[in-house]
């Protein structure tokens, strides 16, 4: 994990990112009721693309990756054992599915990123518990964000809570800086390893715990995008965009409450 350069943001730039974040959270709030059994993930992506276009923003995920295999959608939809980067398709959501919605948008040149995991229909208690703990990992990680402190204390907070509940922490993928681009330095791991810079005024990061019911090990499918748990156990994913100021931390994306949590 090589860290190149952390680009800190000034107050005006953070305001631009904040506006983008509020727009993204509004999209997710309106999208969640559409995540129902029988709906295809492609239908959800079409809803997202239309919503973003009408809002005057641009989908930040569409076209990400290599020229040979760009991401073909505006949202990542990952179901059950799929951890992240699920590609929308004709697959229908089934009753009891655990569905991760990870989306980003660009508005007026500023990029936001947020993810939530929701249950479709009647979700087993075990999946609801995994989802609840993953959300708690996110907020414990955010609580660890303090100006002047080291970045990896976020990972310790996330990992400690996941492991204490018997879950696996995904180490291969992590959070990241965000705001000017979708993926910036620094990397924000969910397991304490790698560079450990101090968090300072103007840092904007996406914190995104990916927690598995079984092992934290993952594989990538032949499509080159979809990340799945190595043992086939379900996974959950939550994410916020967070800004660090000299005397406080602000969650720029909105907290989204789920009715079935």
What would you note in describing this structure?
- The protein is globular.
- It has a single domain, classed as Creatine Amidinohydrolase (Alpha-Beta Complex), CATH 3.90.230.
- The termini are far apart.
- The strands form four sheets. The chain has a five-stranded antiparallel beta sheet with strand order 8-7-9-14-15. Strands 1, 2, 4 and 5 form a four-stranded antiparallel beta sheet that branches.
- The chain contains four helices and 15 strands.
- It has helices at 11-31, 41-55, 125-143, 152-164; strands spanning 58-59, 75-79, 82-84, 98-107, 110-119, 168-169, 175-177, 184-188, 204-207, 210-212, 218-220, 227-229, 235-237, 240-244, 249-251.
Question: Key terms for this structure?
Answer:
5-stranded antiparallel beta sheet; 261 residues; Creatine Amidinohydrolase; globular; 15 strands
């Amino acid at each position: 994990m090589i860290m190149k350069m952390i680009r800190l943001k000034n107050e005006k730039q953070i305001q631009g990112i904040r506006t983008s974040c509020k727009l993204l959270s509004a999209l997710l709030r309106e999208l969640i009721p559409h995540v129902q059994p029988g709906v295809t993930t492609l239908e959800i992506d079409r809803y997202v693309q239309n919503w973003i276009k009408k809002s005057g923003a641009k989908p930040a995920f569409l076209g990400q990756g290599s020229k040979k295999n760009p991401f073909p959608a505006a949202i990542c939809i990952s179901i059950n054992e799929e951890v992240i980067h699920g590609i929308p398709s004709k697959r229908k959501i089934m009753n009891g599915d655990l569905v991760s919605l990870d989306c980003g948008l660009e508005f007026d040149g500023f990029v936001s990123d947020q993810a939530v995991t929701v249950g479709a229909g009647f979700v087993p208690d075990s999946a609801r518990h995994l989802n609840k703990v993953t959300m708690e990992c996110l907020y414990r990680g955010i609580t660890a964000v303090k100006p002047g402190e080291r970045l990896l204390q976020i990972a310790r907070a996330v990992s400690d809570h996941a492991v204490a509940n018997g879950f696996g922490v995904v180490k291969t993928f992590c959070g990241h800086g965000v705001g000017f681009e979708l993926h910036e330095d620094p990397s924000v791991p969910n397991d304490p390893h790698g560079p450990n810079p101090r968090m300072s005024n103007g840092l904007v990061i996406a914190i995104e715990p990916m927690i598995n019911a079984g092992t934290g090990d993952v594989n990538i499918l032949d499509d080159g995008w979809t990340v799945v748990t190595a043992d086939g156990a379900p996974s959950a994913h939550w994410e916020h965009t967070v800004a660090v100021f000299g005397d406080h931390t602000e969650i720029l994306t909105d907290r989204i409450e789920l009715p079935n949590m």
